[in-house]
Amino acid sequence: MANNYFGITDTGKQRDNNEDTFIAQKTDDGNFIIACVIDGVGGYVGGEVAADIARECILKDLAYIAGNVTPLLVNTFANANQQIYDRKLQEKGLENMACVLTLAVIDLQNNQFYYAHVGDTRLYLLRDNSLIKISKDHSFVGFLEDSGRLTEEAAMDHPKRNEINKALGFAPNITKDSDFVETGHSPFLPGDMLLVCSDGLTDLVDKKLIKSILTESGTLEDKGKKLITAANNKGGKDNVTVVLAQNDKAPRQQNATRPAVSVKATTEIAEPKPQPKVVEELAEPVVKSKSNQGTVLILVILFVICLGGFIWQYWLNHQPKAEPLKAVAPPVKPKSAGEIKLQDTLNKLIGNTLVLSAADFKEPIILSDSIFIGKDSLYIKAKGKIVFKKDSVYSGPALVLAAKSKYVVLDSLAFDGFKVAVATHNDALVLKNVQFTNCVTPVQTSYLFPDKKYISGRLFGGMFQIDSLPKAIKK
């Protein structure tokens, strides 16, 4: 697959700077195509800075792609969002900057594409001469258009067309809202084409004209340039950016299968031939006379054995009896009241939220055994200072999550002195303002895979942030 992607951006007719940027390239391993359009907002300089930050973050995080793609895209958006937000706090002139973007990742080998989207940039799929809008505009006017309350023409002329309600850089920690980033995936069949574009195109060029240009003959570069020209011919009010990607594999031709002709076949089944009967001649048994000497010998042997057993048993009964050894069990240290109370509360908990109040646990919770969490999902929040400390002779984990646990949040807890503070599986654990003191291994994660299967993927990095002070968390 060569020359199957192309990107282009243009300042337009009415602006003298370009806040748009794009990505149109393969990943470092060559297995995926990255098609992305980023539209910066927030002033003359800020928009460009935000767009560049997002672009660099995407190129870094998606240099190699493996495993479950969608969580990787969401994590990349979260990283870019945090970097933009932190930069805003550092530089006063950039306090209003943000960006919107649409990112498509195309799996070349398996004919699939995955996407993530925030804002009013757009993703279209062209298949069989039909142009389908995949992403949804995160704006009030976009909602009206997507829901059919506004026609495309009315939406293009609406005075609040460019007012968005989602963008990277608006607020930190976007992953707390699972619906913030729009995601999805779909087959990318031979002959399919993806269009990723900024609103500088779709605010001026309607879907009918876009489809007409995309279905013309010519290269992707020709089509990309024609889309830019079409926007500029309509006034070029904004920066306009276009990225195209096509599955240029040869379409598979399915051979028609002719109906089978019914043929009557005569099959002769040979009857089994009768087997000859085997006649066994019974010979008369030969009777041997037994000698009495053998019987006498057997009886003598049995008598000697019985006599020996009687003598042995008599000797054992007259030996002095030794006192039986008693097994001494190691002393079991009783569990602390806080430990018993916490495990009992977890076992009887109805619902998925547990608030641990410092008023109920007035001193550190001393653990001499692991606290087991067996729920699929659970939110444990400390109200006040809640500290887990290990008993002097205990060497196991403080908390152990069950293999079936999928989403367990620990909020504002502290662990002191454990070799392993929390033992978990897969990606079930979420930490918020959790403190580890003198813990050799704060979190030990085991990944569970099916037996005898081939596993591909990677462990995500940068999912945790380290701060000297606890972060304020919105309620």
TrEMBL record:
Gene3D superfamilies (alphabetical): PPM-type phosphatase domain
InterPro entries for the chain: PPM-type-like_dom_sf, PPM-type_phosphatase-like_dom
Name of the protein in its database record: PPM-type phosphatase domain-containing protein
Domain called PPM-type phosphatase: residue spans: 5-247
N-terminal signal peptide: none
Domain of life, per lineage: Bacteria
Classification via SMART domains: PP2C_SIG (SM00331), PP2Cc (SM00332)
Keyword Membrane: yes
Transmembrane segments: 296-316
SUPFAM superfamilies per the UniProt record, alphabetical: PP2C-like
Keywords: Membrane, Transmembrane, Transmembrane helix
